[in-house]
């Protein structure tokens, strides 16, 4: 069994080396070993002001956010308690009163 990292794009375990590159046969993504080492380090999430976010923090939404399928937007100034940080484009998983469970981008919140 090889000790190569999974593909950072599709998380496939079938990666292989091609010269100095690591390649994923499933999605075709190519990356270098130095990029793989950087991705292995812990990610730091930051709010709109550059403050570091952690699981369980309370944040405040800084601007009105439109929600698909909802009749009204989430108003700026809404407090969101007990956030959970996740990987991806929308990197905050939370529950907002009146809207339910949703994911937010960290660039639209500030630490409360």
UniProtKB/TrEMBL annotation:
Protein YjdM N-terminal domain residues: 4-32
Annotated coiled-coil segments of the chain: none
Gene3D superfamilies assigned: 2.20.25.10, SH3 Domains
Positions of the Protein YjdM C-terminal domain: 46-112
Database matches in SUPFAM superfamilies: Prokaryotic SH3-related domain (SSF82057), Zinc beta-ribbon (SSF57783)
Top-rank taxon, per record: Bacteria
Pfam family, one: YjdM
Family recorded in the similarity comment: Belongs to the YjdM family.
Protein name per the record: Protein YjdM
């Amino acid at each position: 069994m090889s000790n190569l990292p999974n593909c950072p794009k599709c998380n496939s375990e079938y990666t292989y080396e091609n010269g100095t590159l690591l390649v994923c046969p499933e999605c075709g993504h190519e990356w270098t070993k130095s990029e793989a080492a950087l991705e292995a380090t812990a990610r730091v999430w930051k709010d709109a002001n550059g403050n570091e976010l952690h699981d369980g923090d309370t944040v405040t939404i800084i601007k009105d956010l439109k929600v698909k399928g909802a009749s009204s937007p989430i108003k700026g100034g809404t407090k969101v308690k007990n956030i959970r940080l996740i990987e991806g484009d929308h990197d905050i998983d939370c529950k907002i009163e009146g809207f339910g469970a949703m994911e937010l981008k960290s660039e639209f919140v500030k630490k409360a």
